[in-house]
Amino acid sequence: MDGLEGRQLGAIREVVEVAGAAGIDQLGAIREVVEVAGAAGIDVWLRGGWAMDFHLGAVSRPHVDVDWYCWRRDADLLADRLGALSWRPDPRMPATLQLDLVRDDVELSFAYLDRDAAGRVVVGAGPWAGTVLPEGMLSAPPGRIGPLAAPVISVAAQIEFKEMFPVWMPERPRRAKDAADLARLRASACDHPTG
Predict the structure, then answer these.
(1) How far is the C-alpha of 77 from the C-alpha of 39, rounded, in Å?
(2) How many whole angstroms separate alpha carbon 124 and alpha carbon 104?
(3) Torsion of CA 190, 43, 126, 180, to 10 degrees
(4) pLDDT by residue (tens digit) across 103-119?
(5) 79-83: long-range contacts, CB 8 A cutoff, minimum separation 24
């Protein structure tokens, strides 16, 4: 076994220890989305817990699903390309609001992005459509876990979303995992202020 294979096996063991078998399936789905989107010329960015983990370079906790951003104009093509790989629409979420896909026990959620008349990145659908998103959100360097790289939203945007979630949705107070994520993200922002 060469050094690369050993590092890959070590990364897999680490994911299983922290996130279980579901984490391995989710990482496989992330790899698949990155490959499919790249081949189709579709921009995607991880958001939520997996974005944090790819920024940090390690899996920090189990995740329920894999959250992404994509441009609204690309959603149909992305759904078609992933549909060819057995990803199916999740009937619980209308595709007019966001693209939710499922396969086996893995859920993918693509929130839509758009641009306003001034060229700023905005929420692309739903009750918050047109709301301006943080400047520079899409300009972060790719994150990495082991040999797998994926586009992620900026750390500043991740922190803002985690901080504001209970304000935007008061019926869903901050969860313990959100407070822990905020602490990790703030610490990493201090260590890497330009990320």
Answers:
(1) 12
(2) 28
(3) -30
(4) 999 999 999 999 999 99
(5) 81/36, 81/37, 81/39, 81/40, 81/42, 82/32, 82/33, 82/36, 82/108
Close Cβ partners of 131 (under 8 Å, ≥ 6 residues apart)? 122, 123
How far is it, in rounded angstroms, from Cα 106 to Cα 194? 32
Q: What is the pLDDT of residues 132-149, one digit of tens each?
A: 999 999 999 999 998 899
Write the CA distances from 10 to 7, 22, 118, integer angstroms: 5, 17, 47
Residue 161's CB is within 10 A of a number of other CB atoms, namely 20
Tell me the pTM. Answer: 0.85
* Residue 134 neighbours by CB under 8 Å, 6+ apart: 154, 156, 157, 160
The tokens describing 194, both together, are 């330009």
